[in-house]
Amino acid sequence: MNKWDNNRAWFLILPVFLIVAFSAIIPLMTVVNYSVQDIFGPGQAYFVGDEWYREMLHNGRLHEAFFRQLLFSFSALTIEVVLGIAVALTLPKKGLGASFCLVALALPLLIPWNVVGTIWVVFARPDIGLAGVFLNSLGIDYNFTANPVDSWITVLVMEVWHWTSLVILLCYAGLRAIPEAYYQAAKIDGASRWAVFRFIQLPKLHGVLLIAVLLRFMDSFMIYTEPFVLTGGGPGNTTTFLSQFLTKMAVGQFDLGPAAAFSLMYFLIILLFCFIFYTAMMNYDKGAAK
User: Fold this and answer.
1) Residue 4's pLDDT is what?
2) Helices (H) and strands (E) in the chain — how many of each?
3) Residue 51 CB: number of other CB atoms within 10 A?
4) How many whole angstroms separate alpha carbon 96 and alpha carbon 142?
5) Is the bond preceding 235 in cis, omega lying within 30 degrees of 0?
6) Sign of the CA dihedral running 258, 259, 262, 267
7) How far is residue 187's CA from residue 171's CA, in Å, rounded to a whole number?
8) Are 230 and 117 in contact (CB under 8 A)?
């Protein structure tokens, strides 16, 4: 009877396996199949082995987009985490002010990606945009559509504006979860504000910071819509990140084989960086606990 019951349990989870297979494994296997073929049209595909992978590894434009992506993701992550912790520490702990701040901070997270890009196109325009006109009135020659530095800074500021709220809310939840007894003990010992942050708040924020870093890194490393709407990847290719590079290859040039090979490499790169982040932060936690 027990054996039958255990076997019947497999039938209960069978729908989950079918959904996962349909939504993830089958599309992934399709991409793997495309990545080893040269496709000319329906029924005209030829096996090429690892040719597309080798081509992608030696593609100079891909290398440029990759380093551009790394610089952007690490810059955004650093600013968002530091700013998120700083703002969370200053928020009121309770009352109407706390509720108002939390609602206001959540608003940017509710705006769709394409709308964010459109907002910043209007906001940063050097001729009619509030920010663009203000900067030019200060004597700064700002034009994000023509100057690569201006376009870079604008995309970075847009990303920080859109997603720092998520880090703030996570850190705020982590700070509110710290028992009041810790603060009372620190007050009795005469601990400074910095000591409270260094030895109580920061270690207790470790869990939420791990979630924030992983979420923000994955999302920033896959950014597509906002810079596409704001700059279209330009001027030139200065704001063309990996996802835009992939889209141009798959949709613009219809190079399905190389695009499929790069898609798998892109996926593995994100997994690798997330594993490194996770391992580093977990080892830091173990070291701090000793």
Assistant:
1) 55
2) 15, 2
3) 16
4) 40
5) yes
6) negative
7) 22
8) yes
Phi then psi for 134, rounded to 5 degrees? -65, -45
Whether 5 has a pLDDT exceeding 70, the answer reads no
CA 271 to chain centre: 13
Tell me if 92 sits within 8 A of 101, measured CB to CB. Answer: yes
Q: Specify the 3-state DSSP secondary structure of 46.
A: strand
Taking only the tens place, the pLDDT of each residue in 87-110 is 999 999 888 888 999 999 999 999
Residue 256, classified by CB atoms within 10 Å of its CB into exposed (0-12), middle (13-18) or buried (19+), is: buried
> How many Å apart are CA 11 and CA 2, to the nearest integer?
15
- Residue 69, amino acid: Q
- Name the 3-class secondary structure at 138: coil
**Using 50, 70 and 90 to split pLDDT, how confident is the model at 206?**
confident
Nearest CA to 35 out of 270, 274, 268 is that of 268
Q: Which of 159, 177, 135, 282 is nearest to 221 (CA)?
A: 159
d(CA 135, CA 80): 23
* Distance, CA of 233 to CA of 240 (rounded, Å): 4
